[in-house]
Amino acid sequence: MSWAVAVLGLGLLIFVHEAGHFFASLAVGLRPRRFYIGFPPPLVRTKRNGIEYGIGMVPLGGFVSIPGMHRPIPHDADRRFSRAVSDAPGLAGPADRVGRALDEGDLDAGLTALDEFEAAMADRKLSPAALGAAEKGLTELRDALGPDAYWKARTWKRLVAIFAGPAANIVLALVLFTFVYATVGGKVSQTVRSVTKDSPAEEAGLRAGDRIVAVDGEPVSGQELGERIVASQGRPLVITVVRDGNEIRLGPVSPEKTEDGYRLGIVRGGTGLPVLDAAGRAFEVSGRATVAIGQGLGRLAVGEGREDVASPIGIVRGSSDAVERGAVNYVGVLGFISLSLALLNLLPLLPLDGGHILFTLIEGARGRFVRREVYERVSVVGLAIVLLLFFIGITNDIGGLT
């Protein structure tokens, strides 16, 4: 059950990200073509004001389709219409006219050529595969040549539409952190409410009702206790507790590394802060987490810190563990994952949002578009880096399961 909650939580973060893109695009006049909860094939779908809304069979996250992300080039027509031309050679002429118009940058001529190709296609018998590819090409190219195409929009509109995805995740993280600090995370108790099964705390002999008063002989408050455990980086600690009026020293015990830091495996209660104070604490912890994530990425750039990379498998496993530690704990972990997702997407790599932001700024400064070949080559490099991080994360997570 905890795994299902964790998977749905990760799906929620992806959906919030895509919703950010969707509503921001609408706000600046870039009309998306599709907005789905989950992924196709669709279970339910409807069309309203030119936008297809749907619920997909794969209940994870969602997606938004923004028209004309790139300036169309002749290769786009060749890729979509080649099967139709192969089935019906008489379509070669209309297809070539589409390609020439795109090569010359004549948008009006391109739309006219697409109409001619569609009319010629209606008189030919095509295989289902060729017909499907050609119809998809007609839709994509008309979107790319239309007045609301993304690539034709002013620089600030493109930036708003793209940045809104990571921004939505950042806002969600702040909301979740505020909830945690406004409920039980404002002033954390020193008293253990429960001990996680098979955890370092259970092995060390910690029990529900123990009040932790010192770590390695130094007195700690409830807040300081958590900080000391995280700062230990897994180093063995001696825990002093008060049990039935007597002080008992337990350990040494080594905190266990989880997806959200080092933990002993104890659950504690606490009291909340006023909402404004909780929001302030949320901004503070988000800032510290951002710095830590940035430092982690910096270490990766010089070949260090590979063990800290997690794949979706590890993220789900860590989230599942957080679910078992309690709802508030899980909400906090979900906030950190949302913030991490936003910061990862802001890396200046295509096809990530940060890469699109960087190229939009470059095009705005130059006053002309970057050639598609450059986009595609840079995207290959960016995708290779993202896949490498994914592979490292998978390797770490599989190692953690064995």
The tally of beta strands, per DSSP, is: 10
What is the count of DSSP helices, taking H or I runs of 4+ residues? 13
Q: Estimate what percentage of residues fall within beta strands.
A: 15-25%
Distance between the termini: 22 Å
**Mean pLDDT score:** 85
The count of domains is: 3
Sheet with most strands: strand arrangement: 5-4-6-7
Strand count, sense and closure of the main sheet?
4 strands, antiparallel
Low-confidence stretches: none
Radius of gyration: 27 Å
What does this structure look like?
The chain is an alpha+beta fold. It folds into three domains: 74-147, no CATH class; 187-271, Pdz3 Domain, CATH 2.30.42.10; 276-401, no CATH class. Helix content is 58%, strand content 18%. It has helices at 2-27, 74-87, 92-104, 107-122, 128-145, 155-183, 200-204, 222-231, 275-301, 312-325, 327-345, 353-366, 372-401; strands spanning 34-48, 51-65, 187-195, 211-215, 218-219, 237-243, 246-253, 256-258, 261-263, 266-271. The strands form four sheets. Strands 5-4-6-7 form a four-stranded antiparallel β-sheet. α3 packs antiparallel against α4. The protein is elongated.
